[in-house]
Amino acid sequence: TGERGYELVVPQAAALDVWDAVVAAGEPFGIRPCGLGARDTLRTEMGYPLHGHELSAEISPVMARAGWAVGWSKPAFWGKQALETQRAEKVVRTLRGLLAQGRGIPRPGMSVVDADGSALGEITSGTFSPTLRQGVALALLDQSVEDGATVVVDVRGRSEAFTVTKPPFVQPSTKES
Questions:
Q1: CA distance 80 to 32
Q2: Rounded CA gap, 138 and 154, in Å?
Q3: Separation of alpha carbons 121 and 92, rounded Å
Q4: Where are the alpha helices (DSSP H) in the chain?
């Protein structure tokens, strides 16, 4: 989500007690439970990839611009040669951010085209950003598309303009606790 977070793995029998204890301990700090929809919105605002959307058998960490998470210095790992080849050859499509110029709310699977209607890529994650109060998306786009370019997304039958940008859309908090 862009903020410091933790994952707790507890025995199933203790899960409710742990949940209640965490919520009670966080109450003085304004803690509030949220669901996966909130997690998805927050991680999209930060430009973080999600497996099954921005990372998959078809979308490598190189394409998803998540090469920072790959142990390149390891002598060997499954898929290393293929990733090194992609990195050296500059893959055809990479993950980019899209910021709505109007009211369009992008959704996964929507096509991204240029002003002439030529295909440029596809939305992998898209949502309404409550922080920015506009649509944001992550999209796998052709390398030729530059930051700042205007692209078009078909949002439920309407051609909506979006600006290509580098995530994060929302700057992470610098507040230390």
A1: 41
A2: 15
A3: 10
A4: 15-26, 36-46, 80-89
Q: Quick check: 108 and 125 in contact, CB under 8 A?
A: yes
Sign of CA dihedral 133, 138, 139, 141: positive
Q: Which residues contact residue 5 at a Cβ distance below 8 angstroms, ignoring those fewer than 6 apart?
A: none
For residue 164, give the nearest of 129, 120, 131 by alpha carbon: 120
Q: Which two tokens stand for residue 13?
A: 């029998």
Residue with tokens 């085209």: 113
52 confidence band (pLDDT: 50, 70, 90): very high
Task: Report pLDDT digits (tens) over 16-47.
Answer: 999 999 999 999 999 888 888 888 898 999 99
Residues forming a β-bridge with 96:
139
* pLDDT tens digits, 147-170: 999 999 999 999 999 999 999 999
Q: Which residue has 């060997």 as its token pair?
A: 76
CA 172/CA 75 separation, integer angstroms: 34
β-bridge mates for residue 162, sequence order? 100, 151
| Residue carrying structure tokens 């078009």 | 152
pTM: 0.82
Chain centroid offset of residue 89 CA? 24
